[in-house]
Amino acid sequence: MLSVRNLTKKFGGNEALKGVSFEVERGEIYGLLGHNGAGKSTTLGIILSMVAAGSGEVMIDGVSVQKNPRKALRKVGAIFESPAFYDYMSGWENLRVLVGLSGPFDAKIAKEIVERVGLSKRIHSKVGTYSHGMRQRLALAQALLPEPEILLLDEPTDGLDPEGIKWFRDFVLGLREERGMTVLFNSHLLSEVEQMCDRVSIIREGELVYEGAVHDLRDDRPGMRLGATPPETLAHVVERFGGEKMPGGRWVFPKETRICEVVSSLVNAGAEVSEVTPVRRSLEDVYLEYSRLSEA
Amino acid sequence: MMFLHQLRGELRKLFARKRTYIGYVVFLVFEALLLTLWVHVGRDQFEALAKRNFVPVELLSSSLTATYWIMGFSMFLLGSIYFALVSGDIVAKETEDGNMRMVLSRPVSRLRILILKYCAVIIYTVTFVIFVGITGYSMALLAMGAEGGLFIWNPDMQILAIYPNRDEAFWRLFMGACFMGLSMCVVSSLGFFFSCLKIKPAAASVMALSVFFIDFVLQNIPFLADYKDVFITYRMANWVYVLQEQIPWARITESYSILMGLNITLFTIGWMVFQSRDFKT
């Protein structure tokens, strides 16, 4: 459905993208994971023809965005982080104006979508009076009109409260269930990507450092930050339990390992234990791990 | 048909904003002020002037002549501010606020987006001038009555015309307002051009006004009098020739062809810049 081929982009002398390629299958939810400035939004900008690629090509359902952007974008709905609407107009008027750029505005379908995103009561209020969550719902409504086949979401849950995040996630998953919607999801939150996506790419300094299934990214092994002196005893004991040192001072152990046994062994070996902190694998850890792998 | 729907959307955006109406409100207040001064302070002076020059008083101090004064003397200096303000905002404000990304994510070409915006600005400009004409004349009617014709005296453009017949005077003035509207489109085109660049909306408006006023000042420098024809503001002031008894159509056609060429050039360069821009957060 979406094919991104060898994209490069420079801003001034800065190389923002260095040959980014990935494919998103129809009906798939694909995550593009990376820190701010990693190149996610530039990639999305090129897909939407807002940013000119240095080289490379984007195909949406077989149509080149670079050669025929209007035709390619007919199947696309997009949501940006902090969506900007015309605050002095109502939500409904905003929909009318924006959707009108894609084709005739069908009020009946628009009403259904507005109801679906739960904005019926406030749709005729000025957008300036909306909360961030309501703006995001309006953004979702405009992205779903007229009838896209692929949704591009650029950090859509940023700034939402936990309830809003859950609602958004369930809504997007529901769209995939019901309409077989293809979704490209940009985020810097590993947990979000884990809960929504089938496959994921990690982008770092304009390069893809990982691409694969989300479950491959998951690391269910117990992770722990351990502090003990002398360090040789710590290393010796941890090694005995099959511990593996990860970047960021984190140790991971085989699944069946009981951490209390590790700590008890350290104490019995005469070590002075100063820290035992369970650590979840962060995006930073994933970055560092895959960077290390890519360097190797 | 689709274009008209989209243009309606663009106009809805433009006219839903409160700042679009600042110009309308200011002109209404200005018209009321000028007419009050005309009636209470200027009338005696006009009557004396009329007697000295053997011009019938009802020509010099009439609602139509007052309307000509309101339009002719205020639109260039005061109106240009509002045209620059609105046209400077039209692209740059949406880019600054982030609305442009929402617009560009739609299957619509950048050229079409700019054509829609440019049309909206031109409609605003022309209707604004006509609004000032209509409200100015309505207020003058209330203040001075319907009697009298039209007296045109413009030493800069070397025009002296008298229209004792009210109907002819009215249509000449209406035609003048339409041509003035076309002239003022140049200010809007300047604002639109700067708005397409990667600058803040306020900067776009200021740049447009700067170009306009610099041109105006240069045009009025005595030693540049022989080169008046090359200045935009001089060409814009040619609207007043439709008020001359024998309308010099060749001269008007020449000036408006040059102004139209300038508008097209400004739009084209603005579009080329806009087309080559990257839109990111």
Key features of this structure:
heterodimer, A: 296 residues, alpha/beta, four-stranded antiparallel β-sheet, 11 helices, 14 strands, elongated, B: 281 residues, mainly alpha, two-stranded antiparallel ribbon, 10 helices, 2 strands
The share of residues in extended strands of chain A comes to: 25-35%
Low-pLDDT regions of chain B: none
Largest sheet of chain B: 2 strands, antiparallel
- Percent of residues in helices of chain B comes to over 70%
Number of helices of chain B: 10
Give the overall average pLDDT of chain A.
Answer: 86
Q: What string gives the helices and strands of chain A in order?
A: EEEHEEHEHHHEHEHEEHEHEEHEH
Q: Please outline the major beta sheet of chain A.
A: 6 strands, mixed
Helical coverage of chain A, percent range? 25-40%
Reading the helices and strands of chain B in chain order gives HHHHHHEEHHHH
Assign the structural class of chain A, choosing from mainly alpha, mainly beta, alpha/beta, alpha+beta, or little secondary structure: alpha/beta
Described by the principal axes of the CA atoms, the overall outline of chain B is elongated
Report the structural category of chain B: mainly alpha
Count, helices of chain A:
11
Low-confidence stretches of chain A: none
Strands of the widest sheet of chain A, in order across it, are 6-7-8-3-9-10
How many beta strands in the DSSP annotation of chain B? 2
Could you say how many structural domains of chain B there are in total? 1
Largest interface: A-B, 39 and 28 residues
List the helices and strands and how they pair.
The complex is a heterodimer of chains A (296) and B (281).
Chain A lengths: L1 E10 L2 E11 L4 E5 L6 H8 L7 E6 L2 E2 L4 H5 L2 E4 L11 H10 L6 H10 L15 H12 L6 E5 L7 H18 L2 E6 L2 H7 L2 E6 L2 E7 H4 L5 E7 L1 H10 L3 E3 L3 E3 L6 H10 L3 E7 L4 H13 L1
Parallel strand pairs in A: 3-8, 3-9, 6-7, 7-8
Antiparallel strand pairs in A: 1-2, 1-4, 4-5, 9-10, 11-13, 11-14, 12-13
Chain B lengths: L1 H14 L6 H31 L4 H4 L2 H35 L1 H6 L5 H35 L5 E5 L4 E5 L2 H31 L4 H19 L12 H5 L12 H28 L5
Antiparallel strand pairs in B: 1-2
Helix pairs in contact in B: 1-6, 2-4, 2-6, 4-6, 4-7, 4-8, 6-7, 6-10, 7-8, 7-10
